[in-house]
Specification:
Blueprint: E1 5-7, H1 13-24, E2 33-37, H2 44-48, E3 52-55, H3 61-67, E4 73-76, H4 87-102, E5 106-111, H5 123-135, E6 139-145, H6 156-162, E7 164-167, H7 179-191, E8 198-202, H8 210-221, E9 226-229, H9 232-241, H10 249-260, H11 270-275, H12 282-294
Parallel strand pairs: 1-2, 1-4, 2-3, 4-5, 5-6, 6-8, 7-9
Helix pairs in contact: 1-7, 4-5, 8-12, 9-10
The chain binds NADP nicotinamide-adenine-dinucleotide phosphate.
The site of NADP nicotinamide-adenine-dinucleotide phosphate (NAP) has 26 residues, from helix 1.
Amino acid sequence: MTGRILVTGASGHLGARIIHHLLATQGVPAASIVAGSRDPAKLAALAERGVETRRVDFDDAASLATGFAGIDRLLIVSTDALDGAGTRLRQHLAAVEAAKTAGVGRLFYTSMPGPDDSMVTFAPDHNKTEEAIKASGLAYTIFRNGWYMENLFMALPSALASGQWYTSSGEGKLAHIARDDIARAIAAGLAKPVSGNVTYTLTGATARTTDEIAALVRDVTGKPLAVVHLSDAQLSEGMAAAGVPAPYIPTFVSFDANTREGKIAMVTDDATKLSGVGLMSLEDFLESSKAALLG
Ligand SMILES: NC(=O)c1ccc[n+]([C@@H]2O[C@H](COP(=O)([O-])OP(=O)(O)OC[C@H]3O[C@@H](n4cnc5c(N)ncnc54)[C@H](OP(=O)(O)O)[C@@H]3O)[C@@H](O)[C@H]2O)c1
């Protein structure tokens, strides 16, 4: 076992599951784990188990100096600050700079697939963070996280309610992966010995078009669901008419455009190689989410 591991964003969905898998799946002693959050009060259950909790806020340089002190392996979980004003990139760059100053042994980061060649509006945040990590001189491991199966909750409940799934993803394919499978793989990557600089792309095992996903959803739910293929402009207009807040629409449309252009169709076995176990299938995810999807 190496020195201490710090996971930032430990109260978030992904951060919490990574720490769960460090403890329960990888058998890392609680004393070797530090959980960082803007609000350590949310980490009380981990503190009770012997995990040290620290305040870590990428907007507060002082919290990064104290938070990263004495850490061997530091995982920066990307933030959710998608305000279109550069906040997220500024936060990530501050964290990378503080990691360098603290002299951590290895820097880990949660990125996205193909950030240098993506149409997704926030891809530059990840690309520029990766560049800063590579320029830092620190040893690094980058996890390019594929799209979560859980993201399907953004579109499917309303699509099932209306029977129509509007998309501009065309014939583009996407290999969704369960968020917990990403957490399991990242925990393995954090816990196991590693040398050199590594970039993993964590995807599901099968890439599917929206029509193919809709067919699975019909099978599992027994409900009608027609895929309505639109242009990006039509999708954007439809979202506005449905009341989606204007600042979010370009990002949502960019997901579909990125899929249509084949930029997130990659399938790798990096997640299973890291964790050593198979991944949840989309069929099983839909089956276990059936009640929630149908509201
Ligand atoms: N691959 C995908 O499909 C996908 C989907 C959604 C999001 N993501 C990305 O993956 C990340 C983790 O996903 P998730 O499902 O865990 O999202 P989430 O539950 O929304 O978590 C957001 C995370 O951002 C952290 N955060 C926000 N502001 C911060 C700040 N100023 N300093 C430090 N940390 C800050 C939060 O940490 P604390 O609250 O504990 O401070 C929390 O871990 C997201 O933040 C986003 O960048 C990926």
